[in-house]
Amino acid sequence: MTLTWLDPERLALLRCPKTGGALTVEGDALVTADGARRWPSRHGLACLYEDEQVVGNDRLMRTIYNSLPALHDPATRVLTPIMQGISEHGIRRGFLPRLELERLSPRSDRPIRILEVGIGGGANLPYLQRALPPGLPVEIWGVDLSHGMLKQCQRRLERQSLPPTCLMMVDAHELPFVDGAFDRVFHVGAIGNYSHPDRALAEMARVAQPGSPIVVVDEELDLSQRQSLYYRLWFKALTFYDDQPHAPVAALPPSAQDIRLTHLSRFYYCMSFRVPV
């Protein structure tokens, strides 16, 4: 598969995750200008990570997601009300105000760019579309380690009328983008199993426009409300990979400002922050 979707404007956003150098397209690969690093596409997707660096929980969760990708979103939709007493719709809709999408306005030089780190099957895309100001030129970028989940996202994009979306296989610890490339950056549901959450958060901050909100959602038991044994057991099953699921406030970049932490449901927190202008 050729990478024809990477026109010069999009290609200018990319950098080699190892050298930081600019990339060019050669057939089915992305190559640094000096030819020292070559990143072939995998599973028909642009791939900018090295497999041997995916270790621990990152590798475990990628294996799980690749095994049964078609079941993930339906299972989430069915099990969320059973486990938490709230719909999946309610949780996904709950984090959108933190992105401040209503404050976005058209740019003269390019479309508005939004990055979802860990896009999975693209379940958040319809919610983004409904929350964006009507008529706003926008381009979504979605990155993930799981080729199975990205294939599900491609199928969603084929079935539904959604904003233009660029998908890539990328390690969240080394985002292959220039500084300040995106007007909004967010992540839902996986940072708790990242090997180095501090590195992933630093990367999200780096590629976000200074002053823009960065939003992270994942599992943490809300102890401000009573949690019966029923909910505690469900939470333990959901977070089997983590001995102490919690919001990684301590892992935020030292420059983080306007830090806000609330709970969207019994099991999910929403953390947002900004880096200075």
Short synopsis of the structure:
With 277 residues, this protein is α/β, with parallel strands linked by helices. It has helices spanning 8-11, 56-67, 69-84, 88-99, 125-131, 147-159, 197-207, 229-238; strands at 23-26, 29-32, 38-40, 47-48, 112-117, 138-144, 165-170, 184-188, 214-219, 257-263, 268-274.
Q: Determine the strand fraction and express it as a percent band.
A: 15-25%
- The N- and C-terminal alpha carbons lie at a distance of 40 Å
* Helix vs. strand class: alpha/beta
Task: Return Rg in Å.
Answer: 18 Å
Architecture of the largest domain, CATH level 2? 3-Layer(aba) Sandwich
Number of strands: 11
Which of globular, elongated, flat, extended, rod-shaped describes the shape? globular
- Work out the count of structural domains: 2
Roughly how much helix do the residues carry, as a percent range?
Answer: 25-40%
Enumerate how many helices there are, as a single number: 8
Largest sheet data: 8 strands, mixed
**CATH level-four homologous superfamily name of the largest domain:** Vaccinia Virus protein VP39
Outline the structure in words.
This protein has 277 residues and is α/β, with parallel strands linked by helices. The protein folds into two domains: 1-40, no CATH class; 51-274, 3-Layer(aba) Sandwich (Rossmann fold), CATH 3.40.50. The chain is 31% helix and 21% strand. It contains eight helices and eleven strands. Strands 4-7-6-5-8-9-11-10 form an eight-stranded mixed β-sheet, with helices on both faces. Strands 1-2-3 form a three-stranded antiparallel β-sheet, with no helix packed on it. It starts with 7 loop residues before the first helix and ends with a strand. 38% of the residues are buried.
